[in-house]
Amino acid sequence: MAASIDVPVLQTGPACCPGGLGSPIDRETAQELAGLLKAVADPARLRMLAWIRAQEGCESCVCDITEAVGLSQATVSHHLKKLVDAGILERSKRGYWTWYSVVPSRLGELAAVLA
To answer: E strands along the chain, which residues?
Structure first.
C-alpha cells in the first residue's frame, strides 16, 4: 500500500486560490500526489470509487461493482487494482469474493490538493 503523504495545505488562501497546496512541495511528494491523481483520472475508476463510497461501510464486493458499472469483471479488476496500488482502496477476500473498501486518509490527501 502507498505511504501517507504530508500535503502542505492552506487553511485560507488568497482570493485567487483559496485552500489547496499551501507551499512548494518536493519532488517525491509531487510524484506521490501525481500517482494519486492519475489513479482517479479515469471515468471508469471514478464511477467505481463513487459506487464503493455510496455503499454501507464504504465497501463493496467486486461482483456488485461489475454489475453497477456495466463492465466485464476483467476490466473492473484491472481498474480496481490501479486504485488499490495507489492506496485509495483496500482489498480483502471473503470466501470466493473479493471486497474493496475506501481508505479515507488517501481520499483526504486528494481532497487537500483539490480543495
So the answer is: 59-61, 89-94, 97-102
pLDDT digits (tens, 9 = 90+) for 44-94: 999 999 999 999 999 999 999 999 999 999 999 999 999 999 999 999 999
The confidence band for 2, taking pLDDT boundaries of 50, 70 and 90, is: low
CB-based contacts of 32, cutoff 8 Å, min separation 6: 2, 3, 5
Instruction: Confirm if 40 and 46 have CB atoms less than 8 A apart.
Output: yes
List, in order of start, the domains of the chain with CATH numbers: 42-103 (1.10.10.10)
3 near 105, Cβ under 8 Å?
no
Grid cell at residue 109: 490527501
Alpha-carbon Rg for the chain in angstroms: 16
Grid look-up 486528494 returns: 110
Q: Which amino acid is at 73?
A: Q
